Structure formats: structure tokens, C-alpha cells
Protein: Thioredoxin domain-containing protein
Amino acid sequence: MAVAGASDGGAGAAVRLGDQLPDCAITTDQGTSSLLSFDPSNWLLLFSYPKDMTPVCATEMAELAKCHEEFSRRGVSLLGLCVGTVEEHRAFVQDVEETFEVSIRFPAARWSSCCTTPPHIGRDTTELLRCVDALLRSHADGDIGTPANWRAGDDVLLLPTATEEEVDEKQAARATAAATAGPGGDATAGAPAAPSGFSQLRSYLRLKPDPGISLRDDL
Structure:
């Protein structure tokens, strides 16, 4: 999620997709930190919300709290961004925890300018997790894309620049590396097969069974 500005209220250029996220000091409801102080082996999901003590944001915070373990399991840290003060964040977090009986373990930071979304429409945390899975799957294998409504384990797409042989070789190498890194280091024990079974619907539209390799074994 793109963000703009700085925690001290200064203006800044918008961060666009593909840009390196700049480091800066942030003051959160859990203390002072910096963007790059989060676990470097994790991805960082920045989610903005327009204002504390608002009904839609309260439900979103509660659902993210319920899904926190799912994000952590995928190697994703969460950071909330809002224009409110730290004191307002703390009071809001307490309200949400008491109302929805959840524990909010991710921080919320004051940000001078956040992404805007329709404030009356709540976001779908299930879809956020699905998108994270798809991004991780594509990142793990650069020649792979995911079709509409893709779920982990569904068939994946071959990008137009990829050859079937290259994809098979890469997936077989990843399967062997994952097995070698496991207990005992036996490259043949429990290594998932990298299935072929390409299905070409059009010259530009090729499907392949997902080999089921761990989404995060390269990070």
C-alpha cells in the first residue's frame, strides 16, 4: 500500500509500487521505531485508515487482529497508519480490544498523509491474505502468475516470456533445495514433485499445476 508524508507531519513524495521504501522514524502506540526496524526477513504490510474512533475502521482493526497469526505465518508484519495522535491510537486500540474481545499486537503510527479508501466500505481481510499468498507465490517463481480468484494449490499461469522447460527446471531445483535444507539434508526424502501437465488454452494462456512448494522458503 503506497503511503506519503512523514511521521513528524512533513510533506513527502508518494511511494509508488516497486519503489524502495525509505526509512524514517515513526512514533507508534507501542513506542518509537523506524520503518526498517521491522523484521528484515518479513514483508511489511502498511494499511492506512482515515480516523480513530470510527465504526468501519474499528471492524477492520478487529479483523486484522483476528488474522494476525495468519499474516505472521506468511512472514508478513503489520503496521497501521493514521493521521491521529498516538494517544488517540491507544484509546482506539483499547476500545476495539474491549468491544470485539481481541488482542491487537501490531503497532499503529501517526502519518501525515495516508492512502484514501472509501471510508464507509470495510476491507476484506480474507482477500488481503489471498493477495499476499498470490504475491508470495509469484515472487517465489518469477515466471509464474496467478489467475483470477486463485487460491494456494490452484493451477498457476505461465507468463508469456517463460518456457515450459525453464519453469520445470526452476521448480524441480526449488523442490530439491527445500528438501536438502530439511532434517537430515536428504534431497530425495519428502521432496515435492514439480508436476508438468501444462494446459495451453491459447498461445498466450498456459496453465500449470502448482507444485506446492513453500511460499517462503526463499526468503
About this structure: The chain has five helices and nine strands. Confidence is low (pLDDT under 50) at residues 1-11, 185-195.
